Amino acid sequence: MNELAPPPAPDIVAAAQDLVLGLMSMPWGQVSPSVYETGRLVTLAPWLTGHGERVRWLMGNQRADGSWGAPDGYGLVPTLSATEALLSVLRRGEDTGVRVEALREAAARGLRRLSRCLSGTRLSLPDMPAIELIVPSLVARINDHLADNGMSAALVLPAGMSEAPLAAVREWVASEEEIPQKLLHALEIAGDAAHGAAAVHVTEIGTVGASPAASAAWLGDRGPSEPAHPVRWHLEAVVRRHGGPVPVGLPITVFERGWVLSWLARAGIPFEVPPEMLVDLRTAIGPAGTSAGAGLPPDADTTSVALYALTLLGQPQEPGSLWAFETPTHFCTWQGEEGASVSVNAHVLDAFGQYAALRPEAAPAYAPAIRKLSAWLREQQRQDGSWDDRWHASRYYGTASCGLALHEFGGAEAADAVRAGVEWVLDTQRDDGGWGRWTGTVEETAYALQLLLFAGSGQRVTEAAARGYAYLLRSADVSDGPPLWHDKDLYRPLAVVRAAVLAAMHLAQSRSLVVRLAGQV
């Protein structure tokens, strides 16, 4: 027996069915904890259940260099948040079960790391939601702590960033004028103006902006005095579900269900969907589309993936709500978006293409948009064959999203672009068989494998897929992977990632040669 052979393959159909049924038991979604969001709750809601656990969780996640979070600029926001949170605990003199000396040392290491990072000339920040507001707000809070301790040294803002946008937003919130729904997701940056802001609408489940930090900021000092307040109840439910630390965004009900169902159905895995889940998904899509979850604005990404999933499952719904997101050149994620996302446009292409394929009589109405999307996606392809997306840290996600959509619905004009994407995936496989930006991960390997197995061909593709499949068999626990999805902080939608991995494994298992070769890796 080959001792290096991968372990036996799991029962993909049973695992997929369990995953789908599990969505019903956790309707708000399954999301990894966030350093940024947890740090904001430590500062804003020390009265909330699990305060000590949050502080200890932050302490346990600090890196040896004093930072928190991922490399390549992704660590700035979480390091600012965690450092400011520890300084707030020290200022209040709280007993959190952590020695004061340990808190001081962790905060000092965070400050040293931030000082080096912000004073350097090579700081490159990723395109994260509200980063231009979050960074100035946290730098100002930390500098206030330093001033209160008689320290003249202060953190500086990154080059090209200023306090002006933050000041404008705070004036806007204080004016009681209507606030854009997308801004509510980061309401905590408004400081005191967020407390009870009259223009804020609390959702039926008690969340503000689908964000624990935004919810706590709006609740303010009413938290300890009004334990029966709906927002307090919502926050208590979130922290109890996660054992203290909290995710950066919750709920993500529609987002999670759309992605899970579409990954599994696209790969051809047989599974049954609870009828009420399909009804919920259909009714969530209104004339303006649907949002990822309660408290967030409608967006083209969630809308298109939900529509695509429904069509794959034999419940097609006319995708006319997506026209609200069309611009002269592409489709925006939401109205007023700065920048553009290739994955969003790939998913809109999926939704239009799949609907037109199932309803040929409707195809002429969508043909111009399909051609437009295909052309725009081809224009966005990098010279090396990959695609880089603003909603994910890994190019494997963007490349799989664009490559799969173009392969299926882009027409003959897209063949060269798809081929180039496949070649980039082949060229970037790691020695252990996996794929990944910083290290090999099951998530990124799943994206790479799907593109190879759907759109690739030939011996080289087969051999690479076999090595990738063997890697997944050895590393199938998705809970251990790094967060890679963009929000205020990087996050990991656990069920979505699990579905992507199951889809890749199912595709590999459908190719007997891939499975046989994997046993020899």
TrEMBL record:
Record domain Squalene cyclase C-terminal: where: 340-476
Cited InterPro entries: SQ_cyclase_C (IPR032696), Terpene_synthase-like (IPR050148), Terpenoid_cyclase/PrenylTrfase (IPR008930)
Protein name in the entry: Type B diterpene cyclase
Organism: Microbispora amethystogenes
